[in-house]
Each structure stands twice: as C-alpha cells, then as structure tokens.
Write a structure and sequence with these properties.
Blueprint: E1 14-20, H1 25-30, H2 39-42, H3 47-54, H4 59-66, H5 70-77, E2 78-81, E3 88-91, H6 99-108, H7 128-132, E4 142-146, H8 151-154, H9 157-160, E5 164-165, H10 182-189, H11 200-214, E6 218-223, H12 225-231, H13 235-257, E7 266-271, E8 295-296, E9 298-301, E10 309-310, E11 314-318, H14 322-329, H15 334-337
Parallel strand pairs: 1-6, 1-7, 2-10, 3-11, 4-5, 4-6
Antiparallel strand pairs: 2-9, 3-8, 7-9
Helix pairs in contact: 11-13, 12-13
C-alpha cells in the first residue's frame, strides 16, 4: 500500500519520468553481455573497441562502465528495482510486451486489452499526465517530449491538449512545444534514419532548452534508440545508445540541481516500457510470445525516496504502479481517482508523519 502523504509533507515539487524504450534489465544490473559482443550474435562491427569501452571482469564493474550515473548517483541516493537474480522483480502486466501497451500501462496504471498494437489510435484512457494537468498548481506545467511519432496518440493530444515535442503531424501543431534556435536547426539539417523516430540526442537538447526556459513541473521524456538498435541486431549501438541516455540523464540532473526551481525538490523516475528476450537471437525481440520480455526495471532518485540503493528480495513491482507513484510524489492520489490502477510503490516515499 502506498504511504499516505500530503503535499505539505513532501519535498518533491517536480517529477521527470524518463523512459529508454526496450532497454533490458539484464544490462542495467550486469552490464554488457559477453555472448552478444561479437558480429555473429550482436552485429558488432568492432568487437575490440566495444570490449575496451564496456567489458569489465565483474557485473558490478560492467554496469558502472555502461551506466555510470545510475550506478553512482541513483545507487547512492535513490533506489533501483528489477534485478531478478537478487529477488527483485519488476514486470509488465499487459501481456503484450511491446510499446503502446507498455506506455499505456505506465501512464494509466493498468493494461488495456483494447490497446493491442502500435497503431496510431487515440488512447481512450486518461494518462496521469493529463490528470495532473487538471490539478491545482499543475495546470500548464506538464510537458511531453518523446522521439516516437506514436506519442501524440498515446497521450491523446487532441483531447488532452498537452504540450508535446515534436508534434509530428499537422493536427497536433497547436500543442507543439516551441523549441527555437539551434535545436530546430539540428532537426531540420539532420538526415533521419527512421521514418517514425527522431534521435535521442535531439530530444535531450530540446528538453534541456525547454526546462531552462519554461520550468515545467511534470515532464515525460521518451528515448527510443535502444529499442531501434536492438531490433536492428546492433548490440554495439544498443549499448552506446543506453550509455548516451545515462549521460543525458546525468546532465539533465545537473541542470535541474543548478536551478532554484528544481534544486532538492525534483524526483527522476527511470524505466523501460518493456523488456526483451534472452540469448543470441531473442535479445533483439519482445512481444507476447517472447519469453522474459515482461521483465523490467525502475530507478528512482529524489528527496522523498529513501536512499536504499539496489533493492534485493523486494516486490514484485509492476509498471502499473508508476502512474500512482508519480502522482503521490506530487501529493495527489491517482489510485483513488482510478481504483483499477495499480497502487503506488510504497518504498519510493518516506513517511514523514
């Protein structure tokens, strides 16, 4: 059960939900996997260079090399869930084990059998971001930035009118976050690889500009390259993308901690929308028929989360608990408003009563 706290008892005034699409719990907790660091299984173009960058003798050293921010700042000052080898299980409950159902579960607190594809269909469910945007003190302080062109539908921008970057399509243009200057130039001048995804680096720089200018209190950041490179069978680029996301989070954390609007009153929640399979081929895939793709991970760092580091023998915890957790950190009770949603993660909050 979620600890009952009022906003006055909390230090958190801002929450950032940051997702690295399809990034496996295995790499989070044990770093690079030896059997995939080659051309045969991992499409690696330069195994020697990849080994030099990410291979170390122990799982702890490998994960530190891959994700230095998570395994320094979050390990020392937050909590990290999902190491199945140590009895900490985080999982998706929607049964589909791919992106739109996963994002819906995270954002609404429950799986929905109506959402059974990644098709661009407006989400019939109200996300915690839409709901929070109606709460006192938060209206107009909610922002969405994501690399995937389905996000405007997942957040149902036509109904919610939440500000989003990029807007992707003309019908969402009125909700587009205006990111002027060099970031716009980079978007315009960069040749895309994917039709439905923009680069993580562009998202990071857009988010940094927006946070510095507009000071949103509730922020969604959806990075997508980890999933794309895994589907492409490029383990080297998958690891590099994950390493970049970790560094983007580090730099954004430093940015917020250097701003009075955010310093010591901001919580970051990091996770993925689904897991992946295991082994020389299945690591590339996820979905209903892929064993193990329900496995996930969550890292939380902020002033109201006890600094317990890597959690062991705790849970199970599900994606469906994140919506209520986000709201609770802001003193709001999403689970009461939507009883079918998962209750929040009690360990993520300190009871100050």
């Amino acid at each position: 059960m979620l600890v009952s706290l009022q906003a006055g008892q909390l230090k958190t005034e801002n929450v950032f939900l940051i997702i690295s699409d399809g990034f496996r719990w295995q790499e989070v907790f044990t770093g690079a996997e030896a059997g995939l660091m080659n051309e045969t299984n991992g499409g690696v173009k330069n195994p020697k260079a990849l080994n030099a960058e990410f291979w170390r003798d122990t799982p702890e050293a490998r994960r530190q090399a891959l994700l230095p921010f998570i395994w320094s700042e979050a390990q020392r000052h937050g909590q990290i869930f999902g190491n199945q080898a140590k009895g900490s299980v985080v999982s998706v409950t929607n049964g589909k084990k791919f992106s739109y159902p996963g994002y819906n579960e995270i954002l609404t607190g429950r799986g929905d059998p109506r959402i059974d594809s990644n098709d661009k269909k407006p989400n019939p469910n109200e996300t915690v971001f839409e709901w929070l945007n109606k709460r006192s003190g938060l209206r107009g302080r909610v922002s969405l930035l994501g690399t995937w062109d389905v996000f405007p539908y997942i957040f149902n921008i036509e109904r919610s009118r939440l500000p989003i970057w990029p807007s992707w399509e003309i019908q969402f243009e009125q909700s587009r976050i205006n990111i002027s200057g060099i970031v716009n130039d980079m978007v315009r001048d960069t040749t895309p690889i994917w039709d439905d995804l923009t680069y993580d680096s562009l998202l990071f720089h857009a988010a940094t500009v927006h946070v510095q200018r507009k000071h949103p209190r509730v922020v969604f950041l959806g990075f997508g390259e980890t999933d794309e490179w895994a589907h492409a069978g490029r383990y080297d680029l998958y690891l590099t993308a994950a390493h970049h996301v970790d560094d983007f989070v580090r730099r954004l954390w430093i940015t917020t901690q250097n701003m009075r609007q955010y310093r010591d009153k901001t919580t970051f929640i990091l996770t993925a929308d689904h897991g992946r399979g295991s082994g020389p081929k299945a690591w590339r895939d996820h979905g209903e028929k892929v064993e193990g793709a329900e496995g996930d991970w969550i890292a939380i760092i902020g002033p109201d989360t006890p600094p317990l580091g890597e959690r062991t023998d705790v849970g199970p915890i599900t994606e469906s608990q994140l919506a209520a957790t986000i709201a609770a950190l802001l003193g709001e009770d999403f689970h009461h408003a939507f009883p079918q949603s998962g209750a929040g993660i009690s360990d993520a909050l300190t009871d100050r009563k």
